[in-house]
């Protein structure tokens, strides 16, 4: 399995000279196995760059697994040309919302006057599937879906595909005490080859934003250690953390993991590609 990060930021896109190395696009991760349709994790603004790797002749087939419908995880769909071609198909899985089924709620913000067209006007076929707490097969991939603590209906994913396992927990409300890990999170991450996990705040920032739906870099290391994963990718970086800040934060998380006997730690950045 080839895994590539196309967007690694949380909250809002923030491309600038100061974060050129880590990147400023929001959540989007591509998974690829030879001769099989790709799976993409979240549809943030990084989706536009994932789209540049896909066919635009109507032959595109793919699946998107979205964790929730906050803007930073869905606003890339209108800028994804592979799905805007006759004959193309994109299946989108994600949690149903209080306001209705996933497709209905999605259509409430990708429509005039917020955007010039409704998603149904894209020339490809877009299919929505509501998921919350279930196991399913997508082609040859086994996908586990479990609810994850955050603000509003949110899920995480575990993908077992071509002999490799990836856990994707992009937004995770840590306990205010930063102690203990939700059973569903441990189930998703258990023994994974790679855990991609929310690491938005420093401990000092978390004191002021403990109810904002995210966690600290240190808590991400705690989750990875508790789940026994092989490698942790720090993800969903705060838009206020420039490259120099990120270097220091990633170094600190690596040291913490080494001190407690945790896994290898990497700081996700746009363009990082891992062979699993």
In short:
The chain is α/β, with parallel strands linked by helices and 276 residues long. The protein has helices spanning 47-51, 102-109, 183-189, 203-209, 217-227, 243-259; strands spanning 2-7, 28-32, 39-41, 61-65, 89-94, 125-130, 134-138, 141-147, 155-161, 164-169, 194-198, 231-235, 264-267, 273-275.
Characterise the protein shown here.
- The protein is of the alpha/beta class.
- Helix content is 20%, strand content 26%.
- It contains six helices and 14 strands.
- The protein has helices at residues 47-51, 102-109, 183-189, 203-209, 217-227, 243-259; strands spanning 2-7, 28-32, 39-41, 61-65, 89-94, 125-130, 134-138, 141-147, 155-161, 164-169, 194-198, 231-235, 264-267, 273-275.
- Helix 3 (183-189) packs across helix 5 (217-227).
- The longest helix has 17 residues, at 243-259.
């Amino acid at each position: 399995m080839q895994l590539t990060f196309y967007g690694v930021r949380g909250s809002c896109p923030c491309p600038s000279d100061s974060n050129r190395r880590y990147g400023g696009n929001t959540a989007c991760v591509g998974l690829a196995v030879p001769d099989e349709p790709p799976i993409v994790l979240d549809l943030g603004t990084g989706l536009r760059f994932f789209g540049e790797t896909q066919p635009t002749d109507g032959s595109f087939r793919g699946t998107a697994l979205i964790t929730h419908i906050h803007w930073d995880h869905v606003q890339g769909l209108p800028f994804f040309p592979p799905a805007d071609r006759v004959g193309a198909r994109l299946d989108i899985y994600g949690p149903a919302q209080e306001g209705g089924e996933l497709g209905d709620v999605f259509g409430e913000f990708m429509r005039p006057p917020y955007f010039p067209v409704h998603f149904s006007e894209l020339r490809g076929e877009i299919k929505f599937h509501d998921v919350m707490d279930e196991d399913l097969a997508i082609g040859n991939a086994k996908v586990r879906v479990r609810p994850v603590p955050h603000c509003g209906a949110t899920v995480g994913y575990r993908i077992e595909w071509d002999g490799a396992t990836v856990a994707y927990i992009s937004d995770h409300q840590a306990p205010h005490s930063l102690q203990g890990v939700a059973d569903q999170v441990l189930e998703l991450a258990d023994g994974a080859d790679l855990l991609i996990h929310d690491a938005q705040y420093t401990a000092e920032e978390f004191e002021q934003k403990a109810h904002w739906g995210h966690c600290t870099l240190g808590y991400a290391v705690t989750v990875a250690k508790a789940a026994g994963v092989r490698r942790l990718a720090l993800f969903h970086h705060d838009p206020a953390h420039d490259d120099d800040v990120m270097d220091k934060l990633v170094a600190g998380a690596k040291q913490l993991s080494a001190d407690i006997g945790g896994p290898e730690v990497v700081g996700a950045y746009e363009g990082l590609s891992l062979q699993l």
